[in-house]
Specification:
- The model has no long low-confidence stretch (mean pLDDT 97).
- The protein is built from nine helices and eight strands.
- Helix 4 runs parallel beside helix 5 and helix 6 runs parallel beside helix 7.
- Strand 4, helix 4 and strand 5 form a beta-alpha-beta unit.
- An eight-stranded parallel beta sheet has the order 1-2-3-4-5-6-7-8.
- It has one domain: Metal-dependent hydrolases (TIM Barrel, Alpha-Beta Barrel), CATH 3.20.20.
- By secondary structure, the chain is an alpha/beta fold.
Length: 258
């Protein structure tokens, strides 16, 4: 089984005790590629350093909506050297989060950052990795305002109808370990509705640990549980689901020849 974990945060402090051991074990577990998105300048730099150390690891650089405190819009330009790195494959993690950001002023500010980073992704012809929590309409409106942008809704929380709208605009959706939870009905509906060629899988490590490991720290070795759930929904074998999503991610991140 060939696995591609399209979203994992290995700079996170939860990996501090054994980061090297976890990452070194991934190839033997069938995990051929991992993308590590940053959430601010520091974590983007940490992700770059990890990508330089591990051949199978790539990274993305961006400013997450929950990590904007103490930043200015000029900090977006500071992402440029990171985005020019040969192992940087996307602008991300960027987007909107109205679950945590309640203040109208903070929400407006986060929209400005998202808009500017989508413009940067268009300019540099890089895909965007989008975080969308309780902000579907504004996220979709901003994406539509950038017809030259392309990307993925990570840990997809869209409705099936909205997901198909984004797919028809050329975007992808990605699913995490929460599709294995008992209350995952909506995510499974989206998974069933979206064409297989527009689906990627991820762990969002160290978060979103799938069943039956829920409650433990997540890592890329558990991405197979997402592939198994996708296989059940699409009537495939786990190996077929893993291979399809691996090929999708290689294509999405421009890694087919690497």
């Amino acid at each position: 089984m060939r696995l591609f974990d399209s979203h994992a945060h290995y700079y996170d402090e939860k990996f501090a005790p054994d980061r090297e051991a976890v990452l070194s074990a991934l190839p033997a577990a069938g995990v051929e590629r991992v993308v590590c998105p940053g959430c601010d300048l520091e974590s983007s730099r940490q992700s770059m350093a990890l990508a330089e150390r591990y051949p199978f690891l790539y990274f993305a650089a961006g400013l997450h909506p929950e990590n904007l405190e103490g930043t200015t819009l000029d900090d977006i330009d500071a992402l440029r050297p990171l985005l020019a790195h040969p192992k940087c494959v996307a602008v991300g993690e960027i987007g909107l989060d109205y679950y945590w950001l309640k203040d109208p002023g903070e929400r407006q500010r986060s929209r400005l950052y998202f808009d500017r980073q989508l413009s940067l992704a268009e300019e540099l012809d890089l895909p965007a990795i989008v975080h969308d929590r309780d902000a579907h309409r504004d996220v979709m409106d901003l994406v539509k305002a950038h017809p030259g942008a392309r990307g993925v809704f990570h840990c997809c929380a869209l409705s099936a109808e909205d997901a198909l709208t984004m797919v028809n605009l050329g975007w992808y959706v990605s699913f995490t370990g929460n599709v294995t939870f008992k209350n995952a009905r909506r995510a499974l509906e989206v998974m069933a509705a979206v064409p297989l060629e527009r689906i990627m899988i991820e762990t969002d490590s160290p978060y979103m640990t799938p069943e039956p490991y829920r409650g433990k720290r997540n890592d890329s070795r558990y991405v197979n549980r997402v592939a198994e759930t996708l296989a059940q929904v699409k009537g495939l074998s786990p190996e077929e689901a893993a291979e399809a999503t691996c090929q999708n991610a290689l294509r999405f991140f421009g890694l087919e020849d690497k």
